Amino acid sequence: MIVGVSSVFHGAPVVVPGAFAHYTPWGYNRQGELNAENADTRHGGLEAADRRARPTRCLPSAEMSRVRLVAVAAMAVTAVAITAWVVRDGRRDADTSPRRADGRARSVLAAAARPRGARPRAIPGAPVRPRGPAGRWERRAEAAQAVLVREYANARGGGGWPGLFRLRAPAKLRDRLALRYWWQAQALDTLVDVQERAPTPHNLARIRALVRGVRATNHGGLTNDYYDDMGWMALALLRADAVGAGTAPAARRLWTVIRASWNDAYGGGVPWRRQQPAYKNVPANGPAAILAARLYRRDGRAEDLKWAQRIVAWMHATLVDTDTHVVWDGVNRRGDGRVDRRWLFTYTHGVVLGADLELHAITGDPALLARARRTAGAALDRLAPGGVLHDEGPGDGALFKGILARYLAGLDDPHARTVLRASGEAAWAARDRAGRFGTSWRTAPRDGSELSAHLSGTMLLERLAALERA
User: Fold this and answer.
1) For position 111, which CATH number holds?
2) Do 281 and 430 have their domain in common?
3) 73, 90, 107: which is the final residue of a domain?
4) What is the pTM of this model?
5) Are 236 and 290 in contact (CB under 8 A)?
6) For residues 465 and 140, is the Cβ–Cβ distance under 8 A?
7) Which domain does 304 fall in, by range?
8) Would the pLDDT of 230 be above 60?
């Protein structure tokens, strides 16, 4: 419990529920712009808490001064205690100090430039490669991961919550303190890529620290008002569990929340967020379908498979063009019942083909594989000019093509593999001097880069490394 700052200085002190209410970020829309309309309702801002808890009796001015001093002292003591707890936990599970991160980054970047087959010196604390020389894409993936840690990971004493990633590099204070929940979910997925490729206790500790950081800055839990956010997080948690993080129960709990949101508006579907139960879109339903299918493969519960099939059937009936196989974004976004046919994004195609591939792996139905190929073709024909996945802008949009790359790599298709490799070559050549990826995989970023953009490029390289190993 923390005393609300605005109330201390403008009336009687108010205790705001949730120890980290003042750290919770404002809502952001799909384009990454500030969504002030939902700031209070989505994250329970201080003003809303102030209205709920403000006492009706005013204190004398002298007593009020004493109360203010006590409140400020209480805030300071609480902040020190929380910081001490986090630092202690961080020391045990993840060393993200700038000096060590910089050392690992420099070593791995140098490794990426070595000729194939050269044997590097051991890097203290770095992932251990499997036997045999690393391939070109693996060396590049390691370099991108090293830049992710060096440039974006919150370090002890550097501001921000240990375990989480900053939203931009170079970072301002806001970039260090804001959460951006679904970006952290994609960062978790990317850390799991490393642990699958080259498992180490160090990286497993980093995975666990990220999950703790999300909980701490999200009112102590993993749920929020956005069903697509929770779907991305649950997918990452389920993968993290497979590498030893023990996070499957959390993924199952998120799935229970997502599943309960299904309603009959527009024939079914999972809503985008709690406040718009009749707005359904692919970003909420695609991850939900993939999650349900993977839970079935893990736990064998028939109801999970039925849900995956139900969600996939609804998406194809409502938001996929039967003639062109283009995936539309959503229906009823503005409350008018219209389908967003002009919103064509790489990641919507990615999760639809990903869901079909998951069901094909379970059922063996060749029609599902053929449908996934058609979805991939529709995306690549329209969203990969010149054979390289295109720029979808900053903010959330910078993550979209990395998500398509993740699921497209699971499709055994020569054209898809050609586009992925061409995109990888272009992105690698277009990094800035610090090794960061930008929103475009053809042009180097200027004046730094957002976490979303670097994650997208790193996901691409990790998928290419996985294909190389296969």
Assistant:
1) 1.50.10.20
2) yes
3) 90
4) 0.76
5) no
6) yes
7) 99-469
8) yes
